[in-house]
Amino acid sequence: MNYTLHQLKVFVTIAEHKSITLAADALHLTQPAVSIQLRNFQQQFDIPLTEVVGRQLYITDFGKEIVEASQNILNEVDVINQKLITFNGQIAGKLKLSVVSTGKYIMPYFLTDFLRDNPGVELKMDVTNKAAVVRSLENNEVDFSLVSIPPERLALDHIPLMDNKLFLVGNRESPLETKTSHKQKTLESLDLIFREPGSGTRQTVERHIQKESLKISRKLELTSNEAVKQAVLAGLGHSIMPLIGIKNELELTDLKVIPVEGFPLQSNWQLVWMKEKKLSPGAKAFLQYVEEKKETIIKEKFGWISAY
């Protein structure tokens, strides 16, 4: 056997993405370069590591065992590198986060200065839907997750990060006035655009609908905040949306907040992690940073929200 650490990393990345093209993007390599590394790695084994069925790449059972062993080796290498950097008085290691789609509007602001001050910390952040975020927690794939409504079935620790305010939003052609507050029943006359079931936004909205006994027409159901925003911009309907994701559109007057009695609806962004999670030095340092700096960050970066 004469495989290299680089080959192990390439193979693990291919297994993670189940695609040579996506692995190449993740590794910042060309697709031919990744293919060559996979071929050279495969040549050292008599049993296939991968197979292609209907244009989809799959990892064989034997390949999955090699993935696990390879990841263990790479983890040990990371430990060695962390020890060296730590010995030199710096914080090092990987910081792995999973963030629900609307969380992408706030999480970078809690990372920028921390990563600048700790260049030895390598960030991996996955922005996805809530179901995938919960899976990443359950499978111990991340240090922290950012959610607005934590899953109740998991034993989690958490830090409240900031308020998540939801408003009724329409595009500039919406006939609804913005100078007076509308009754709750107004929602029943609208074609509302919803997030997918299970999202924090959807849960907050549905709890309100149930509480107020409203009969709502569901025009569309979309799987990301950006998709909902584009649908509202196009005039396909109104939506109850997190304010955090529409700052630019409000400033350009492409979207408008429509006052409704009892609004905004509100949840709270929370940084969560499994209670039994053994945090790395980098993760511990980030947690301490967030606790110490969150109020300053909220005031400096999100003070505009108070105007609503």
Could you write a compact summary of the structure shown?
The chain has 308 residues and is α/β, with parallel strands linked by helices. 40% of the residues lie in helices and 24% in strands.
Give the rounded overall mean pLDDT.
90
Strand content: 15-25%
Look at the structure and name the CATH superfamily of the largest domain: Periplasmic binding protein-like II
Net shape:
globular
Helix/strand class: alpha/beta
Number of domains: 3
Helix count from the secondary structure assignment: 10
> Could you describe the largest sheet, including whether it forms a barrel?
7 strands, mixed
Task: List SSEs in N-to-C order.
Answer: HHHEEHEHEHEEEHEHEHEEH
CATH architecture of the largest domain: 3-Layer(aba) Sandwich
Tell me the name of the CATH class of the largest domain.
Alpha Beta
N-to-C span: 63 Å
Which spans have pLDDT < 50 for at least 5 consecutive residues?
none
What's the total count of β strands?
11
What report would you give on this structure?
Helices cover 40% and strands 24% of the residues. It is of the alpha/beta class and 308 residues long. Helix 1 packs across helix 2 (20-27). The longest helix is centred in the first third of the chain and has 27 residues, at 61-87.
Please name the defining characteristics of this protein:
about 300 residues; alpha/beta; Arc Repressor Mutant, subunit A; D-Maltodextrin-Binding Protein, domain 2; 10 helices; about 25% strand
